[in-house]
Amino acid sequence: MITRKILTSLCAAGLALATSVAQAIPLSDLFEGSDLKVGDKRFDNWELEYSDSDTGIDFGEIMVTGLNADPMNIGLRFDANGQLSVSGPYSFLDVSFVFDVTVLNPAYRINGSSLEITETDFGGEGGLIEVFETVSDGGGGNDIGVMDPFVDNLEGDEMLVDSLAFGPLASLSIITEIQLYTDEFDDDSAELVSFEQHFSQTRTAVGVPEPSTLLLMGMGLAAIGVVRRCRQGLR
Description:
Blueprint: H1 2-18, E1 24-26, H2 27-31, E2 36-38, E3 41-53, E4 63-67, E5 73-79, E6 85-87, E7 92-103, E8 108-123, E9 127-137, E10 143-147, E11 150-152, E12 157-159, E13 161-169, E14 171-182, E15 189-203, H3 211-234
Antiparallel strand pairs: 1-4, 2-3, 3-7, 4-5, 5-15, 6-15, 7-14, 8-13, 8-15, 9-10, 9-11, 9-14, 11-12
């Protein structure tokens, strides 16, 4: 009975670990002081630096979702819901915001970041969509590098994904700038539908075992207990 209870608990823990629960929050809430915890990372200190657009932007409609399917590559997805779009001749949008990301587990450190434009929509002759990001050390404020994925529908050129690799860090500061432009024709339009950012990490210290390791250890101990009981019953 004891062994059955242990195995039941271990199975429940395994299911919990295997389940990826997405968290979503309006970008406006983050600008107003909310934060977002995804896996072992906290995303906070969000601030809108500036917003300049021909059409206006409702940040309450832009949803930020935590991505935790891979605990070693936690991320964020930004769904614009029509708010990051321009249309008409020589229309533009320029938005910049900042946030921090911190690893909550002291046994891990961030060692890389990737930025990907996941969906766009163009009309007419199209235009240009660019997500430019500066990554800095959250502790010292020193710049690490930039990522600059873009889609240039006018020239037929694109780089949907850009990434950085760096030494292990406990926290980062991120500056994100989104720019959209159209060409000279009335039916030109450009829309950034969604983009994602991921933060890879590495284990840097011997500490508390990973959840998957704890699960295997628990199952092993349970199996040893069963074997011992069987041997005692045969004596």
